[in-house]
Amino acid sequence: MKATTLRLERFEPLACWANRILRIDLTAMRAWAQESAPYVPAYLGARGIAARLCWDEYPEPVDPFDPANPLMVMTGALTGSRAPYAGRTTIHAFSPQAYPYPWFTRSSIGGRFGGELRRAGYDGLVVTGASETPVRVSIRDDEVRILPADEASGDALSAGDELWG
I want to staple 134 with a disulfide (CB 3.0 to 4.6 A). Which of 64, 82, 110, 163 is the partner? Predict the structure, then answer.
């Protein structure tokens, strides 16, 4: 797999929003920026924006193991700021938790990822598709790179190793 490097455009920022959602399609190995302005302030929080994106793009539930299932990492308006309790980031996808019914659900994580995503200039990240080999994504402000996973550690990993599954 050849590494893909893309430079993404910026949109006019909105108050405490970057006004950009990073979209990555691993099947096509491409990335693009989508404005978050249509979703703010009507869907203020990360959960609301992710639910609206899901309603707009998936009128019918998607099988949890289908490559079309979006993995959404969304930040709130104050994520990455010094505001109390603003360090949470939400993860959204169709989950097998209610098998046999696909269920759009979410979870919440703490730590630095959400703040780092915001400092890179994104309100969220939506990953769809499936690659032929293990890949990793490097986000550095406007530059988004999709790289073979074996470049992460310098080892030559094959498709059967621990990163693939």
Answer: 163
CA distance 162 to 56: 35
Residue 17 has what DSSP assignment? B
Instruction: Map residue 18 onto helix, strand or coil.
Output: coil
User: Model pTM?
Assistant: 0.89
pLDDT in tens, the chain (165 residues): 788 899 999 999 888 899 999 999 999 999 999 999 999 888 878 999 999 999 999 999 999 999 999 999 999 989 988 898 888 999 999 998 888 888 999 999 999 999 999 999 999 999 999 999 899 999 999 999 999 987 655 544 454 466 666
Tell me the three state secondary structure of residue 66. Answer: coil
Percent helix, strand and coil across the chain, each to the nearest 5:
15, 30, 50
Residues 6+ apart with CB under 8 A from 32: 6, 8, 23
Tell me the C-alpha to C-alpha distance, in Å, between residue 33 and each of 12, 73, 125, 162.
12, 14, 9, 31
Determine the Cα–Cα distance for residues 102 and 81; give it in Å rounded to an integer.
34
The residue behind tokens 């599954």 is: 165
